[in-house]
Amino acid sequence: MKKIIFALILVLSASSPAFADWELDLKNLSASLNVTASDRDGEAEVASALSIEFNMDKDLIIKKKEQTGLTYGDIAVALSIARQTNKDVNVVISDHKKYGRAWGKVAKAHCIRTDDLVHSVGKVHEKAKGKGRHKDKGAERGKGQGKGKKKE
């Protein structure tokens, strides 16, 4: 009996870190999207990134966020699950509420590979971060903003 319990603990402890890792990655990406959205012009950048990634109108994404009370990170996860399952995003959001606001449970219920989910949300994150980074690229590096050194 002790051997069975020990084996069960060993199996569970070996599988938990992998689960925790992707959950943590998803939470970090979601939180980072929310931070980006809170910056000046960030909401428009994140909504645009979501619009491009999921081929949706930006205004519809903003409206969905307002209607549901979800964050942009949550909207990114919901749209990703909806796309991967070919389900309406409202069904996915309803499941999110049904499963105690746990995206891991929603992904499992829809048989979504967790690494695909993290990858999809990561693409939105990169697009949103990329837009902010390249906006004033010349000004950041000092190129094109002045007369330069005078040659004698």
Question: Which helices and strands appear, and what pairs or packs with what?
Answer:
Elements: H1 2-38, H2 42-54, H3 58-68, H4 72-85, H5 89-98, H6 103-109, H7 114-134, H8 137-141
Order of helices and strands: HHHHHHHH
Q: What separation lies between the terminal Cα atoms?
A: 89 Å
Binned, the helix content reads: over 70%
**Rg, nearest Å:** 21 Å
Q: How many DSSP H or I helices? A: 8
Domains, number: 1
Structural class call reads mainly alpha
Q: What is the residue-mean pLDDT, rounded to a whole number?
A: 77
Number of strands: 0
Shape: globular
- As residue ranges, the low-confidence spans are 2-17, 132-141
What fraction of residues sit in β-strands? under 5%
Q: How is the main sheet built? A: none
